[in-house]
Amino acid sequence: MSAKTTVAEQLRLERVDGCRWKIPLDPKRGMRVEGLVFADDAMIMPLRDDPCLTQVANVATLPGIVGRSLGMPDIHWGYGFPIGGVAALRTEDGVVSPGGIGFDINCGVRLMRSSLAEPDVRPHLDRLADRLFEAVPSGVGARAGGRRGEAELDQVLRRGAAWAVEAGYGTPTDLTVIEERGRLASADPDQVSSRARSRGKDQLGTLGSGNHFLEVQAVDRVLDADAAAALGLAEGQVTVMIHCGSRGLGHQVCTDHLAVMDRARRRYGIELPDRQLACAPLGSPEGAAYLGAMAAAANFAWANRQIIGAAVRAVFGELFGARAGELPLVYDVSHNMAKIEEHLIDGRRMEVCVHRKGATRAFPAGHPAVPEPYRSVGQPVLIPGDMGRHSMVAVGLPGAMEETFGSSCHGAGRLLSRHAALRQLRGQNLVEQLRRDGIVVRAERRDLLAEEASVAYKDVEAVVRVAAAAGHVLPVVRLKPLAVIKG
Question: What is the chain's Cα-based Rg?
Fold first, then answer.
């Protein structure tokens, strides 16, 4: 009996070089462009029979897609698009697909730097973790102290982080180092349903669950001294990383508009290999409604991270003094978003809608969208790892603009499903194991920590090595975890 044909064999996956693998154009599948996956030899082995490769090929069938359908080195299976998927679609005849952004709209990462060194903090880690756990509600149904009224929620949806700053959560300086200054002007709160609003009214300032976290870290290795200095980072320095998004509001926005687009695409005659790729033309009423709602949810997420950041500052100020509580913001970047951008494609400038799902914008030095303090080195790219291993900070390089529409990896990327991780680690005390490694953990559900254990994820350093070898990012510093707050 012949061996089973793998997904890679079905797709005729071809090696391009040490970090690139091509899925050739296959008109029989309806592919309009090639697929391109970034991975080294070790990473590609478990992917050879993974459905995420099929998803890369499926995305290549979307109307108006240009360049290639892309899979970042942290790629894994997702809804419709793979997580770690990037695609650009022409604005004049392309589509927008909510599956290419994901349910957690503007899930992203915020990094704050402190004036403290690791020895200043380590003796107080337990107390610090306790206070952060109290100050930032976490978990699936986490709720903040009070519900927002409709008028106030409208302002959050329209103005994002700027609303939070004016409400006393941070300073105007913060806005200068947030992607898009923490606000998408295209937001249309009228396209956010009453159900989505209800889910979001009391979730501002909450962390959520799953792979979301708040982490106290220390810089344990500087990889590029000039870029690190530009970002204000130095060896031994304590930092705080926040990873979360638009909570129940964003999830409901995606759910609502997927249902609308699933009906609409039939009217527009759009044939899809996977119903989860439900989409509508960018210029259609359905496409415009989704983009307006997505932008509103993105603004909600930026306000959410801004409020969490203010709570972290208050805790640091309480425990370590006013100066320690300043915690300047290094950067805040999204990795679940659709953005209208201009890129050079096949030798000409073109306006496209770039879908980044589990992929971080990575613009190079000199790009006008990079904040002025970082324009000489490139946009910060924040790449969290798992709770037992390192996270990375990089900056974007010209290669990303040339090959991935200015995009790079967003994290470590899952190796095991949540259920598989739970089965493999059943009975193990991960809290005590991490404490032995010098890492303090606080979690709403300790029994679910196995879902987020290191064994469930790729090594983020290996992921970043591939992104660097491809010319998309320059690694700047490595961060080790000291205290982790989980849902």
Answer: 21
pTM (2 decimals)?
A: 0.95
CA 335 to chain centre: 3
- Helix ranges (DSSP H) in 321-417: 398-403
Question: CA 370 to CA 425: how far, in whole Å?
Answer: 42
Distances (CA, A) of 202 to 195, 246, 455: 13, 12, 34
User: Is residue 71 within 8 Å of residue 36, measured between CB atoms?
Assistant: yes
Q: Are strands 65-76 and 35-38 parallel, antiparallel or unpaired?
A: parallel
Q: Determine the Cα–Cα distance for residues 153 and 197; give it in Å rounded to an integer.
A: 8
DSSP string, 409-465: E-S--BSS-HHHHHHHTTT--HHHHHHHTT-EEEES-GGGGGGGSGGGB--HHHHHH
Q: What are the structure tokens assigned to 370, written together?
A: 């990079």
User: Which tens digits make up the pLDDT trace of 10-20?
Assistant: 999 999 999 99
Cα distance between the two ends of the chain? 48
Return d(Cα 433, Cα 92) in angstroms, integer. Answer: 54
Residues 65, 279: contact at Cβ < 8 Å?
Answer: no
Is 80 exceeded by the pLDDT of residue 199?
yes
Stretch among 96-110, 129-143, 348-362, 396-410 having the lowest mean pLDDT: 129-143
Taking only the tens place, the pLDDT of each residue in 403-457 is: 999 999 999 988 878 778 778 777 678 888 888 999 999 988 776 787 888 887 8
How many Cα atoms occupy the beta-carbon half-sphere of 216 within 13 Å? Answer: 31
H-run or E-run covering 113: strand 108-117
Give residues with Cβ within 8 angstroms of 138, minimum separation 6. Answer: 206, 207, 208, 209, 212, 214, 443, 444, 485, 486, 487
Tokens describing residue 440: 């303090």
Q: Which residues contact 396 (CB under 8 A, 6 or more apart)?
A: 361, 362, 363, 364, 365, 367, 370, 378, 379, 381, 406, 408, 472, 473, 474
DSSP conformation letters of 208-230: -STT-EEEEEEEEEES-HHHHHH
Give CA angle at 308 (172, 73), nearest 5°.
Answer: 100
Q: What pLDDT is stored for residue 420 in this prediction?
A: 81
Task: Report the C-alpha gap between 178 and 176 in whole angstroms.
Answer: 6
Least confident of 331-345, 362-376, 440-454, 456-470: 440-454
**Residues annotated catalytic, as ranges:** 410
Place of tokens 């309480």: 318
